[in-house]
Write a structure and sequence with these properties.
Enolase-like, domain 1, 3 domains, five-stranded antiparallel β-sheet, four-stranded antiparallel β-sheet, 25% strand, globular
Length: 276
Amino acid sequence: MIPAKFDYVRADSADHAVSLLGEHGGDAKLLAGGHSLLPLMKLRLAAPSVLVDVGRIGDLSYIRDAGDHVAVGALTRHHDVETSSLLQSEVPLLAHAASHVGDPQVRHRGTLGGTIAHGDPASDLPAVVLALGATLVVRGGKGERTIAATDFFKGFLETDLAEDEIITEVRVPKTGGAGWSFQKFNRRAQDWAIVGCAVVRNGTTGIGLVNMGSVPLRATAAEQALASGASIADAAAVAHEGAEPTSDLNASTEFRQHLARVLVRRALEEADGRTR
């Protein structure tokens, strides 16, 4: 299908992108890897009048050791996240989960900041940054601010970003020797997850859920159960509580709830095994 007519402009810096967003307001959309926005435009589910291409802003593509966390530029490609020796050592959950995003073509074009900004509950990496307790750095017309990942996702494909803001960096706490696991149930290897989960156990436990509601979310009931001393089996049994998964051609609501319980149990068991 052919998208509606639009104008195209390439930003040469984050500040330039912010300026263009401020100029065009809600009629403008950012284009990075394009794997989320372009299909929506072809289906006429999105019809921006201006595309602001930020994909070639090299200053926003990096992976750096920042002391107690790893700083990842928003335009870092999934492939670079997957193959980063720093992330493999300090935040292995993120590197491993990035290897499960789409296929090699998608991973060489898609960006970490783009998938987070899109806020699709069926995407893998938003659940991962939730489990890790990441912080997002955004820049807009009023300057720079930081947003906890847990406060970022507001509704279906809706985030805390203002119309003139762009994600510039993702700050991911180092997990060192913590236990971790990423579980994903899908029909084919390259498909979206029917349900998935990301777990990190680093003193406390973070559990992010994939495709279990209208937004990326955490399995707070299971997290709270573990914090109160519950067994893995008992905590996993409540992993679905508080989530509102939809029913569609791939799975019913009840099946997704079942998958959440099964996958969270597997993930917690694997995470515990990694800490021994």
